[in-house]
Write a structure and sequence with these properties.
alpha/beta, Rossmann fold, six-stranded parallel beta sheet, 6 strands, 40% helix
Length: 197
């Protein structure tokens, strides 16, 4: 079993720490993992030609199929993006848009587990809407969306790290609650993969 983590941030900082925590937890459970940093790939913007709709392929010759092939092979996928004005980064949104060819190939991502991670500077800085946007992408592909499902009385239902504290500022990797939830997401994905396979 394998889980692919896709870091949609242009930099490897806070969101990367949360994603790495989920992947480390999966590895500890015996699940193979791989982290893809989206900026390591050449992804052009969609041209709107609709070849993907008609033929199930993209005409742009770039690294899209390299990422797509990895997503197809994975049993689970974790997409991670900081909140940029309450939405995923342009880099991740571009991948989401360009993945349409996978849907047109009879839902190549259908029934794969999808976990989502976000981060924001402020406590109410758009992390939730970022996750909701990515969840809609998963629903469009027919994926099975999961959250951390930790302690119901005290833990959030989404993994969102923040820099804001009551005392000032922190690094997202120092957001203990978010790091715990990222670990819970990894544990839950590992448990579900074991049950489904």
């Amino acid at each position: 079993m394998k889980v692919i983590g896709v870091l949609g941030s242009p930099v490897k900082r806070g969101t990367n720490s949360l994603l790495q925590k989920s992947l480390d937890t999966l590895s500890e459970a015996g699940i193979e993992t791989e982290l893809l940093h989206i900026t390591d790939y050449n992804l052009q913007f969609c041209q709107g030609c609709n070849t993907c709709l008609r033929e199930g392929r993209c005409v742009i010759e770039d690294d899209l199929t390299k990422i797509g092939d990895k997503l197809i092979e994975a049993d689970g996928i974790i997409l991670a993006s900081p909140s940029y004005f309450g939405s995923p980064t342009a880099q991740l949104k571009n991948l989401m848009d360009r993945s349409r060819y996978l849907k047109m190939q009879d839902h190549k991502l259908k029934n794969k587990l999808l976990g989502v991670i976000s981060s924001s500077g402020l406590n109410q800085g758009g992390g939730q809407s970022t996750i909701e946007d990515i969840n809609r992408f998963g629903l469009t592909h027919g994926m099975l969306i999961i959250g951390p499902a930790a302690t119901p009385q005290t833990d959030a239902n989404m993994v969102i790290g923040t820099s804001e504290t009551e005392e000032g500022w922190q690094r997202v990797k120092d957001d203990k609650k978010a790091m715990k939830l990222a670990g819970n997401l990894g544990t839950r994905m590992a448990d579900l993969l074991e049950q489904l396979n």
